[in-house]
């Protein structure tokens, strides 16, 4: 039986003094693929930020990868984030360095020191997402889909158990969106848990999976044909 990687009980998510989501109860097992849907402003990003410890959790019980989100100390946040890979809508690649150096920067920042191990890891993750041949290219030389693949590779660097993807296809055309989701599905098939916020319902129809919806300050599971 798969172990739990995320557990939320009676959680209230607050941002800017305003309650965004309340009475959230959720358990995610290792290896699940979960969509988070909902209109803009209903709490998808706030939910993701809470899991990433970008927003503090002050009400309810929350545990992710054996870290208690309520009692989490500032010093522990980097260690939590090494266990979570995050993929952003706008890629967030460093524009002044090439693909390889973008990934090198992250590994050095998270404590890697052996250059041979660093290069091997960079080669491994770029191969995994299909962009190894772009290692020496600058971000502006890549298409949006290629940049997002690099961003996914970056999220895999420290071998996280969970990938959080916040609107990862939001800036991409439909065909490229499908290609990016295929990469995430492949990663999921290898055993990683993926939680993806999206407003692209076409992807949900093409790649059906467990779906949670943010609406009226609540987060609840929906049957996909009703989304």
Summarize the structure in words:
This protein is α/β, with parallel strands linked by helices and 227 residues long. The protein has one domain (4-222): Rossmann fold. Helix content is 33%, strand content 27%. It has helices at residues 44-51, 77-81, 99-109, 115-129, 144-156, 174-189, 201-206; strands at 4-15, 18-29, 33-37, 59-64, 67-68, 84-87, 162-166, 193-197, 210-215, 218-222. The strands form 2 sheets. Strands 6-7-8-3-9-10 form a 6-stranded mixed sheet, with helices on both faces. Strands 2-1-4-5 form a 4-stranded antiparallel sheet, covered by helices on one side. The longest helix has 16 residues, at 174-189. The model has no long low-confidence stretch (mean pLDDT 93).
**Rough outline:** globular
Gap from first CA to last CA: 29 Å
Number of strand segments: 10
Structural class: alpha/beta
Instruction: Give the radius of gyration.
Output: 17 Å
The share of residues in extended strands comes to 25-35%
Mean pLDDT: 93
Strand order of the largest sheet: 6-7-8-3-9-10
Give the domain tally.
1
Helix tally?
7
Reported by name, the CATH topology is: Rossmann fold
- At the first level of CATH, the class is Alpha Beta
Task: Give the helix/strand layout.
Elements: E1 4-15, E2 18-29, E3 33-37, H1 44-51, E4 59-64, E5 67-68, H2 77-81, E6 84-87, H3 99-109, H4 115-129, H5 144-156, E7 162-166, H6 174-189, E8 193-197, H7 201-206, E9 210-215, E10 218-222
Parallel strand pairs: 3-8, 3-9, 6-7, 7-8
Antiparallel strand pairs: 1-2, 1-4, 4-5, 9-10
Helix pairs in contact: 4-5, 5-6
């Amino acid at each position: 039986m798969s172990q739990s990687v995320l557990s939320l009980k009676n959680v209230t998510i607050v941002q800017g003094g305003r309650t965004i989501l309340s009475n959230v109860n959720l358990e995610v097992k290792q290896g699940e693929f979960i969509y988070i849907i909902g209109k803009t402003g209903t709490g998808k990003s706030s939910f993701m930020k809470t899991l990433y410890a970008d927003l503090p959790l002050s009400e309810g019980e929350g545990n992710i990868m054996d870290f208690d989100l309520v009692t989490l100390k500032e010093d522990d946040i980097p260690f939590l984030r090494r266990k979570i890979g995050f993929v952003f809508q706008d890629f967030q690649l460093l524009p002044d360095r090439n693909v390889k150096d973008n990934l090198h920067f992250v590994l050095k920042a998270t404590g890697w020191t052996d250059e041979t191990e660093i290069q091997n890891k960079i080669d491994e993750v770029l191969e995994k997402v299909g962009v190894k041949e772009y290692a020496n290219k600058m971000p502006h030389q890549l298409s949006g889909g290629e940049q997002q693949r690099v961003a996914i590779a970056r999220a895999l660097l420290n071998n996280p158990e969970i990938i959080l993807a916040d609107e990862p296809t939001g800036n991409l055309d439909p065909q490229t969106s499908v290609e990016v989701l295929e990469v995430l599905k492949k990663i999921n098939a290898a055993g990683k848990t993926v939680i993806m916020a999206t407003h692209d319902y076409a992807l949900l129809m093409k790649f059906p999976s467990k779906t949670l919806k943010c609406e009226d300050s609540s987060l609840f599971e929906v049957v996909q044909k009703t989304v």
